[in-house]
Amino acid sequence: MNTPFALNDPVGAFVPHGHFTLPPTHEGLLSGLRFAAKDVFDVAGHPTGAGNPDWLASHPLPETHSPVIARLLEQGATLCGKTLTDELAYSIHGHNIHYGMPINSGAPERIPGGSSSGSVAAVAARLVDFALGTDTGGSTRVPASYCGVWGLRTTHDLISRQGVVPLHPSFDTVTWFAHAPDTFARVAEALLPASAFAPTRILCLDDACQLADAAFQPALASVCQALESLLRTRASASPIAATSLDEWRQVYVTAGAFEGWQVHGAWISARRPEFAPAIAARWEAASRISAEQSATARQRWAEIRREVRERLGHDTVAILPSAASLAPLRSAASSAIEETRIRTMQISCIAGLAGLPQVSIPMTDPMGVPVGVSLLGPAGSDRALVQLAMRLKAMLGVQS
Predict the structure, then answer these.
(1) Could you tell me the pTM of the whole model?
(2) Is the model's pLDDT at 45 over the cut of 80?
(3) CA distance 143 to 147
(4) According to the model, what pLDDT value does residue 3 have?
(5) Where are the beta strands (DSSP E) in 57-149?
(6) What are the residues facing 258 on neighbouring strands?
(7) Sorting pLDDT into bands at 50, 70 and 90, what band is 118?
(8) Is 139 a catalytic residue?
(9) What is the pLDDT of residues 78-89, one digit of tens each?
(10) Residue predicted with more confidence, 91 or 400
């Protein structure tokens, strides 16, 4: 049963049809916590808009909660509405031409990042304790870095994607943000299976680190030094890609876009929805990818996945930036935004192609602007990776 929506929304995080509250169904690990959900998660009796009014108008009300929503309610959390997303989650920018761009409370003159823009904005503004997002090509790791909050891309398929609007199903993951590390860890305990991951090796992905702006380098060095002290071992630095990370990005773009068109192409062709120009251009490009091009990309993707997983083995934690730059200024030119997006996706495609978990730790550059430094671990190591990040936080004194 719904209760009145009691939150003010000074940062524009919530969608107009997302102003509702659902009480918990039981007491549990998350009792006393409030959360929001990106508007791609089904909530029974409430519309799922996926960031686009045409989608909102052409899809029926869900009759059941997505399993992750149901799980959080069962664990004692209160759902406080649904948050803005870039259209069909096909962007990492955070601007929606229909609903606007939320304010990044961590750096108000800068964009929040997307596509989980409303969720990260709600968490950064302390409107809720945590918020559900999704991450396909970086839609949690990037906004977490931009806004200075905790974020996690989970191992692919570790958390059910049922009742979640897909983008590229082979890359889509269920994720969350939190501003307090203990809350972040509590959600991990509620949603993730236990992990026996106990790293003994540290790998700094220097090709990914070199793609990041100079503002990231002190934070990357601090995390590396702290990990060396914690694990009592020396880090090694080497590239993760045998070719180039831009080649890896192109593999992701081709394989993902083809898959996305198989999922949404019929609806887009029949409905002809209004999309932002950049998102419309991505769907147009997706429509032109052939089955042969997709097959070639998928073959290369399988090779990359195997290479990365073999490189990490069962005992390695890797360090990399969560994004390539500070959050761009809200006034930045579109050409600068696009350059940043491409560079960032060269970094974010690593975990996506390998299907691996990646935790973004909130830190700042020397001027106090948010940056995220990530830990990448083997498949299924999610909970242990979160616990490792918590220990690092305590050592580094990361502010939350």
Answers:
(1) 0.96
(2) yes
(3) 6
(4) 63
(5) 78-83, 130-135
(6) none
(7) very high
(8) yes
(9) 999 999 999 999
(10) 91
pLDDT band per the 50, 70, 90 thresholds, residue 2: low
Which among 359, 340, 266, 350 has a CA at the least distance from the CA of 309?
A: 350
Residue 6 vs residues 102, 128, 183, 236, 297: alpha-carbon distances, Å: 19, 11, 21, 50, 48
* H-run or E-run covering 316: strand 316-321
Catalytic: which of 38, 294, 348, 381? Answer: 38
pLDDT at 397 over 90: no
Instruction: Assess whether 115 carries a catalytic annotation.
Output: yes
Q: Is the pLDDT of residue 102 over 50?
A: yes
Rg (CA), the chain: 19
Question: Which stretches within 234-333 are classed as H helix?
Answer: 245-271, 277-287, 291-312
Catalytic residue among 66, 139, 348, 360: 139
Give dist(CA 138, CA 229) in Å, integer: 29
CA geometry: angle at 291 spanning 290 and 294, to 5°?
90
The single-letter DSSP state of residue 46 is B
Which of 66, 115, 322, 348 is catalytic? The answer is 115
Provide the residue type at 99 as one letter.
Answer: Y
pLDDT at position 334 is: 87
What is the enclosing helix (H) or strand (E) of 337?
helix 334-354
Who's near 67: CB < 8 A, 6+ residues apart?
160, 162, 163
Angstrom distance (rounded) from CA 216 to CA 105: 20
- Tell me the torsion sign for CA atoms 238, 138, 312, 382: positive
**pLDDT at 262 (0 to 100):** 98
H or E element, residue 143: helix 141-147
* Cα–Cα distance measured from residue 138 to residue 92, given in angstroms and rounded to the nearest whole number: 7
In this structure, the chain runs to a length of 400
Who's near 205: CB < 8 A, 6+ residues apart? 238, 239, 240, 318, 319, 320, 350, 376
Burial class (CB in 10 A: 0-12, 13-18, 19+), 236: exposed
